[in-house]
Fold this sequence. Notes:
Elements: H1 4-18, E1 22-28, E2 34-36, H2 39-46, E3 49-50, E4 53-57, E5 60-64, E6 68-73, E7 79-84, E8 93-99, E9 103-108, E10 115-120, H3 144-151, H4 158-162, H5 173-182, H6 196-215, E11 256-260, E12 263-267
Parallel strand pairs: 2-10
Antiparallel strand pairs: 1-3, 1-8, 4-5, 5-6, 6-10, 7-9, 8-9, 11-12
Amino acid sequence: MPEKPEVITVAKKLEKKILGKKIIEVNILYPKMIDYPDIVTFKKCIKNQTINSITTRGKWIVVELDTDYLLFHLRMEGKFFFRNKNDEINKHEHVIFLLDDEIELRFTDVRKFAKVMLIPKDKLLTMKPYTELGLEPWDKNLTVEYLKEKLKNKKLPIKTILLDQSVITGIGNIYADEILFLSKINPLTKPNLLTDVDFDNIIKNTTKVLDKAIEEGGTTIRSYTSEEGVTGLFQNNLNVHQREGQECYICKTKILKIRVGGRGTYYCPKCQKEITK
């Protein structure tokens, strides 16, 4: 699944191609992909709005229009493609935006899990998904005290908590493994066993890992690429994720794979020793 660096990479690619353009109309071929509002309202309200800016919030791409925000969640395999107006429509192209230059921005998803929302500007901060999202990794309010307060009653493993978008938003499975490796924290460790130094390391290594991944254009594994012909390179920098049975770059111990909260989790048993107290 695309995580924060991949979402930022996609947003930057879109910004270069569609900023300042006007949406003439939208063709919705898979109505269930529209999460809000109803289809009739969506098509009516988006018509003739200009694309003024493109940013991200957590794993959402946020497109600022004139009176609304257009939000995309890529989920497992959401992608954007640019096609000429008269090009044949692929069966996986579910939401098609006709722009004022006669080019179509086609939102595709083989698995049909992706979501699209159109939210009025004055409602954005009071509606989901915004009301459910935690701090961004680079937020100055992401401090040791913040994490201690948010996690004081949580008994889940720290790996599971890093995937909780209501705590820190944007971290997914790949980067959680990498953050915990650099922080020398076992993925099964409960929050009450972590020290202030551990929390500080999580914060520092979150930005370190994500900054590097953004620099490399994200991580391309399995079937995910950010858009047609665009692949990330951060997979060349992975310390533990998907390296089961290979030697740790630090101590030469073999990387293990376990399941934590139902997610495949990779770690070094020597560098990330389990806390038993």
